[in-house]
Amino acid sequence: MGLCACNSTSLQAVEQWMRVCLLAYWQLLLSVDLAQPPYLPWRKIPTNAGPQDLSFTPRQVHLNEIGTPTLAPRPAGKAPGRASSFTPTPKTRYPIIYKSKNPAPSPATVT
């Protein structure tokens, strides 16, 4: 679980890391009842499933039971759109530029 992942030489940093790992493990133990089973609904659940087969991650915990810090999404509804009396200005039209029949001489070849 990362208990030995701290490679610090400071004793205070190692103790702090141990506390963080302890709190994370404690949260996992407290949320074990809220976890979904790791099996898909259409799959058959084995009868001899042990604790190692029922391990879970924090993502499998139901957010409906714990709650979420975000607000519920609001319905978007229909946009009001343009006003009925609005008429956009017409697009500016530019004249077409045609290629000439004889290409212009380049400055390096003019003598």
Order of helices and strands: HH
Number of strands: 0
Percent in strands: under 5%
Backbone CA Rg: 34 Å
Cα end-to-end separation: 82 Å
Structural class: mainly alpha
* Contiguous helical run count: 2
- Shape designation: elongated
Average pLDDT over all residues? 76
Largest sheet: none
Describe the overall structure:
This protein has a domain at 1-43 and 52-62. The protein contains two helices and no strands. It is mainly alpha-helical and 111 residues long. 22% of the residues lie in helices and 0% in strands. It is elongated and about 85 Å long.
Give a quick rundown of the structure.
The chain has 111 residues and is mainly alpha-helical.
Features:
mainly alpha, single chain, 111 residues, elongated
Topology of helices and strands:
Elements: H1 11-30, H2 63-66
